[in-house]
Specification:
The protein is mainly α and about 280 residues long. It is built from ten helices and no strands. It has one domain. About 65% of the residues lie in helices and about 0% in strands. The radius of gyration is 21 Å and the shape is elongated. The two termini are about 35 Å apart. Residues about 1-10 have low confidence and may be disordered.
């Protein structure tokens, strides 16, 4: 005797349909992102604000990395630009998605989506695509802001921009996946910001975003090395800072191979955790 499926069962979608649904959601997710002032301020605009504050507050102290005779070095804006680019990736991915998805769980949005043909893969594509689109726009505007508002000289070598491209893509995708995974931690939507923002803030302070990394205690540098933001910031420093600044890194080099390795490891960790922990509704609901 055959069994008739309940009328409420959600039909499975094929792989092409899952991809199509996912890509179609990127535009929707991006529109929602730009309509939220809080999200826009604390993820998209925040690196611009912090870079402007650092440049205005510390420029009077002179260039960073000057020789004993006072020559050389780079401006404060030029030094902090790589860190703010890395922070932008983290904020757009981890903070934005962790809070956003936790809120969608809390208000029932995910429960409603779970009753549609939309698969988790399609949902992930929409979220990651939104982070990538807004991340590219944010990075481009941040570079333009640094160049024309702060007078920062940008690299002219093609290999530097190639390095920027792969560090950026690695960093954005890794941050997005970790944001999806971290969204499972807050128990309610209201507690999401209280749970997520301190984690993101601490990582920024110990990873060379707000503080000069070479001046941090060795134990703090070692702790930061366990997390992806440190490697994103180091990769960006290798692109935008003069080669002489490589001696200030813990190993005395930019170590792009280690940057790629660590970001690759965290990308896999984020992919596994996001798929294992993601639920349309909380288990305790």
């Amino acid at each position: 005797m055959s069994t008739i499926a309940p009328a409420t069962a959600t039909p499975r979608t094929s792989a092409p349909n899952r991809l199509g649904l996912g890509f179609s959601r990127i535009g929707y997710e991006t529109k929602v992102y730009f309509r939220s002032f809080d999200t826009l301020f604390f993820t998209f605009l925040f690196p611009f604000i912090m870079l402007a504050i650092f440049a205005a507050a510390f420029s009077a102290a002179g260039n960073i990395g000057t020789e004993p005779d006072g020559s050389g070095g780079i401006s404060v804006g030029a030094y902090y630009l790589p860190g703010m680019l890395a922070a932008g990736m983290l904020l757009s991915g981890v903070q934005n998605l962790a809070v956003d998805i936790a809120m969608e769980k809390s208000d029932g949005t995910l429960k409603r989506l779970g009753g549609t043909p939309l698969s988790p893969i399609s949902y992930f594509i929409g979220k990651i695509g939104q982070v990538f689109v807004t991340g590219v726009l944010q990075a481009a505007l941040l570079l333009l802001f640094a160049r024309f508002a702060l007078g920062v000289a940008l690299p002219t070598e093609p290999e530097k921009w190639l390095t920027f491209a792969w560090v950026f893509v690695f960093g954005v995708i890794t941050s997005a996946l970790l944001g999806i995974a971290l969204s499972a931690l807050p128990r309610t939507g209201k507690s999401a910001t209280a749970v997520v923002i301190p984690i993101v803030l601490i990582l920024q302070f110990i990873s060379g975003v707000y503080l000069q990394f070479y001046m941090l205690p060795e134990w703090m540098q070692n702790v930061a090395s366990l997390f992806p933001l440190k490697w994103m910031a180091q990769g960006m420093r290798g692109v935008f800072l003069p080669e002489s600044f490589a001696t200030l890194e813990p190993s005395g080099a930019w170590d792009f191979g280690l940057v790629a390795l660590n970001l690759g490891i965290w990308l896999v960790i984020g992919l596994v955790l996001s798929r294992v922990t993601f639920r349309w509704i909380r288990k305790d609901s």
